[in-house]
Every structure is written in structure tokens, then in C-alpha cells.
Design goal:
globular, 23 helices, Growth Hormone, Chain: A, mainly alpha
Length: 540
């Protein structure tokens, strides 16, 4: 049943209003997904501009996703307290302010704060778009609405890296941030026309402040401990403090949510065996999706010497394949058991990661693109099926809370995945570098031969004779470091593939009993309309 404010909008604009307001809502979502993916092609450039390593720069992606994960829990309360229009405008203002701050950042720390602001705005807008679309489309057209929403969400990461690369090559990294500002301003202007305001005045609804603080403290303490552990040392007191705070606040969050009358997240949905398995798969799905978008542009720019534009274009074919695969996977998920679709997708993405382990400095563009396309077919097979599989055994009153929890775990998995990938790259690169440097001795015939050749080349280029040994040694060191970095990337790709294969074992337990499978066609339509509209419907 539509609210009076939405009925008034229909009376004013006619039946086309649902498309006007959907476009407005989707504009905010697409802008924020673009911002989340465009930054990945700029990571190597920003590393050079600020002189930082993987342990620091990954926060540009990790911080965005972590902040978005936390603020998604605010959406429902903000809508009830301030209305859809004010919530949308406020989130877009926060997002635009973060974009401007990022473009003007004089240090990497300020840039990371700007990404946290952008993520905070994105976390509120993304579920708001689904809420609006579910309110303006009738039940029989909600499939069309979700198709429209899914298309927008998939198109953005397809063009985001390519657009970011073009901006980098044509201008500089500042414009990767500034690009989001005009889109946010257009969204704000359209929202003043098409998004309904607050329907009635009244006191602010109750809000679980303690729950929000505890979950935010848990997430950011854990991620900070992971990112600083390699640099500070895993046994140092400060790292122990980070992990202790994360563990204590995480346990306190669970107990608080079970006791409070207005939980920010319904913990009891995790009592269901199938649901908790689906939540774990969702975390891995987020890690694979966001992690691959992060690591692939980094690999081809640092190892293969791609320009930002070329690295962005590498991601486009995979995005197109994912767009094509989504409706096919959705149709197949109606015909096949959920666990089979998820098993297929996990296997295909794992194989894609194993194939990428073969990448080297001369891997052709289209070979790498085909590997990515292969993996995107797997992700498309899992994504439309996972939420339905997760909530299929929940009680009707738990459906919206369950879909919100699945969205939360998927985003959290993305933040943790990028953090672990950056950590793994640092550790494996350091290990291989140490191993190679131990071989760089005068007694090594290969090293001696290379130094003679490089010294001869440097002499022909006009280097002073007394400086050629040092120059040759430096070039050998750089070559060994590049080789170590390439082998570290290979190990990370291998680890991602093995983890996906290992997670296929618990996926088998998502299998329904024969009785449940027989009744599935009658039961499945229930969760779908409610699986996405209010991912955080229990906030407040």
C-alpha cells in the first residue's frame, strides 16, 4: 500500500512518476558505486604521489566499504526520523563533501578520512534506492524494478574503472574524486522534485546508539589491527590492543542486540543453520567481488605496466558478461536447487582465480580479460540466488531482517577481503624479496654475468666507470623486486581460488530436504519482494 505522499506524487506526475523517482534514486546509487570502483585504478598512482605502500593505501577501498557497511544500519531509522527526501539529500551532501575533501587532500591520511565520509553517505543511499523502488512499483512489477536496480548496480562497476583510467591519463588523480560531485548535485536537485518528504511530524523514533557504536568499534579496530600488524609487528602491544578491542566490542554487540528491545541488527536470524552458512558464503562473495576489483588493476599496472585507462578497460568485458549472466542466472535459480547454483558459481570463480595465477609480465590483454569474464559468470550465478537461499527457511517476520544481515555480511566480507589481500601481498613480496636477495652475491654466476652485461650497457650510455657496478646492482635489485612482487600476486590469486573451493563444502549443507524441495515453488515467491527493499529494517 502506497503512502499518501507517494500517491500525491503519482497524481502530479502520472504513471511515469515511478520511473522518474527510480532514476533519481538510482543516480545516487550509481554515483557511489562508480566512486567505489574508480579509485582502484588510481591506487598505484596515489602510492607514488604520497610515497605509501599497500599497508596504507588499501584503506582507500577498505575504509569506503567499512564505512558503508556500518551506515547501512542507519538507513531505516533515518527514513523514519527525517523522511526519504531529507535522508537522500543528507547522504548525498556527505558523499559530495567527502569527494571534494579527497580531491583536495594534501596527505594520505586526510584522503582516507574523505573516503570514510564517502562510504558513510553510500551506505545510507544504496538501501534507500531499493526502498523507494519497492514503494512505487506494484507487486507484479517488482521483478522489473529489481532488474532495473540490478542493471544499474552492475553497470557502474563495469564502466567505473575505465572512466577512472581515462580521468587519470587525461588529467590527474584529483579528478577521480571530483567526478562524483556533479552527479551528487544533480541527484540532490532531482530529489527536491521527485522524492517525497516526511509525511508527518513527531518525536524521533528510538535508535540503538550503543549497538551502532559497538559494531563500528569492532569493525574498525579489527581492520586497523590487520592493516598495521605487518608494519608494527604482530606481537606488539598496540596490535594486541586493536584485536582485543575488536573481540570485546564484537561479543558485547552480540549480547546487547539480544537484550535490547530495538536492535540495530536481528541476531536471532543467525540461529538458523542454513542462514549462517549463507552468511559465510556472502562474506566470501563480497571478498571475491571487491577483492578482485581491487587486485586486478593493481597487478596489471605494477607488473605489466598498463596505463590506468588500459587497466580500466580490462575490467569492461567481465562487467558486460556479468550483465548478460544476471538474468540467465536468475532464471536458472528458479529452475534448479539453490545450492547447485551457488556451488557452480563458487567453482567457476575459484577456477578463474587459479587461471589468473598463471599471469606474468607478458600475459596478453584478451587472455586476462577472458579469465576475468569466466570469474564474473561465477559471481553472477551466486549473487541472485544467495539471499533467497538464506531467507528461505526464516519465519515471515524475519525476512527483511535476514536480507539486511546478508547484505551486511557481504559488505563486511568485501572490507576484510581487500585488507587481507593487501596484507598477503606485502608479506609474500617481502618473503620472496628476502629469498632472492640472498642469492645476489658475487659467488652466484648468474648474478655476476648479469652485472657484467648491465655494467657494459651502462658504460655505453655514458655512466662513469666507477659507478657502473652500483648501477648494475641497483637494476638487478629492482628486477628481483619486480619478480618477487609478481610471485606474490600469483600466491594471492592461488589462495583466493583455494578458499572458494574450500567453501564449497559448507555450501552442500544449503541443500533442502526432499519435502522442502517439493514445496519450494510455492514458498519461494514470498521472500523475493522483501529480500532487498529494507536491508536494515530493524534499525531503531
Amino acid at each position: 500500500m502506497q503512502s499518501p505522499a507517494i500517491e500525491a506524487m503519482f497524481a502530479r506526475f502520472g504513471p511515469r512518476y515511478r520511473y522518474y523517482v527510480s532514476l533519481t534514486a538510482m543516480l545516487g546509487t550509481v554515483a557511489m558505486v562508480l566512486s567505489a570502483t574508480m579509485i582502484n585504478v588510481a591506487v598505484p598512482v596515489i602510492m607514488g604521489a604520497f610515497g605509501v605502500g599497500q599497508d596504507k593505501v588499501h584503506w582507500l577501498s577498505t575504509g569506503f566499504i567499512a564505512a558503508m557497511t556500518v551506515t547501512m544500519l542507519l538507513n531505516d531509522w533515518c527514513v523514519r526520523a527525517f523522511g526519504m527526501r531529507a535522508t537522500y539529500i543528507g547522504a548525498m551532501v556527505i558523499f559530495a563533501a567527502g569527494a571534494i575533501m579527497g580531491g583536495l587532500s594534501p596527505t594520505i591520511d586526510i584522503m582516507i578520512v574523505s573516503r570514510l565520509l564517502q562510504g558513510a553517505g553510500a551506505g545510507i543511499v544504496q538501501p534507500l534506492a531499493m526502498i523507494i523502488m519497492f514503494q512505487v512499483f506494484p507487486v507484479e512489477q517488482r521483478g522489473r524494478a529489481m532488474g532495473l536496480f540490478g542493471l544499474g548496480v552492475v553497470v557502474a562497476p563495469t564502466v567505473g574503472p575505465a572512466l577512472g583510467g581515462i580521468l587519470l591519463d587525461s588529467f590527474n588523480w584529483h579528478y577521480v574524486f571530483y567526478m562524483a560531485v556533479p552527479v551528487a548535485l544533480v541527484g540532490i536537485m532531482l530529489s527536491l522534485i521527485f522524492i517525497p518528504g516526511k509525511e508527518r511530524a513527531g518525536p524521533l523514533p528510538s535508535f540503538d546508539v550503543a549497538g551502532l557504536v559497538l559494531i563500528a568499534l569492532c569493525i574498525f579496530s579489527f581492520l586497523t589491527g590487520l592493516s598495521n600488524g605487518q608494519r608494527e609487528g604482530w606481537q606488539t602491544p598496540i596490535i594486541s590492543v586493536y584485536f582485543s578491542v575488536a573481540a570485546i566490542s564484537g561479543v558485547a554487540f552480540i549480547f546487547w542486540e539480544l537484550m535490547t528491545k530495538n536492535p540495530i541488527m536481528e541476531i536471532r536470524v543467525f540461529y538458523n543453520r542454513k542462514f549462517i552458512i549463507a552468511a559465510l558464503v556472502g562474506m566470501l562473495l563480497g571478498a571475491g567481488l571487491f577483492g578482485s576489483i581491487y587486485i586486478i588493476p593493481l597487478f596489471v599496472q605494477t607488473i605489466q605496466g598498463y596505463s590506468p585507462t588500459r587497466s580500466g578497460l580490462l575490467m569492461v568485458p567481465g562487467g558486460i558478461i556479468m550483465m548478460i549472466s544476471f538474468p540467465i542466472a536468475g532464471w536458472l535459480s528458479d529452475k534448479l536447487p539453490h545450492y547447485q547454483m551457488i556451488l557452480f558459481g563458487m567453482c567457476i570463480f575459484g577456477l578463474s582465480s587459479i587461471l589468473m595465477m598463471q599471469a606474468h609480465t607478458d600475459t596478453p590483454f584478451w587472455i586476462f580479460a577472458v579469465w576475468i569474464m569466466f570469474g564474473r559468470v561465477g559471481l553472477a550465478s551466486v549473487m541472485p540466488t544467495l539471499t533467497v537461499a538464506a531467507v528461505s527457511t526464516l519465519k515471515p517476520e524475519q525476512l527483511s531482517q535476514g536480507s539486511g544481515a546478508i547484505n551486511f555480511t557481504r559488505q563486511l566480507g568485501g572490507a576484510i577481503g581487500i585488507n587481507l589481500i593487501a596484507l598477503g601481498l606485502d608479506q609474500r613480496t617481502a618473503m620472496f624479496s628476502d629469498a632472492f636477495l640472498n642469492l645476489r652475491t658475487p659467488d652466484n654466476e648468474t648474478v655476476s654475468h648479469m652485472m657484467m652485461q648491465l655494467g657494459h650497457m651502462l658504460g655505453q650510455l655514458g655512466w662513469p666507470l666507477e659507478k657502473t657496478p652500483a648501477g648494475a646492482l641497483y637494476l638487478i635489485g629492482r628486477s628481483l623486486y619486480s619478480q618477487a612482487s609478481m610471485m606474490a600476486f600469483r600466491d594471492v590469486f592461488l589462495l583466493i581460488g583455494l578458499v572458494y573451493f574450500a567453501m564449497m563444502i559448507p555450501v552442500v549443507f544449503l541443500r533442502d530436504s526432499r519435502r522442502a524441495e517439493a514445496g519450494r515453488p510455492q514458498l519461494r515467491p514470498k521472500p523475493q519482494p522483501q529480500s532487498s527493499p529494507q536491508p536494515q529494517s530493524r534499525t531503531g
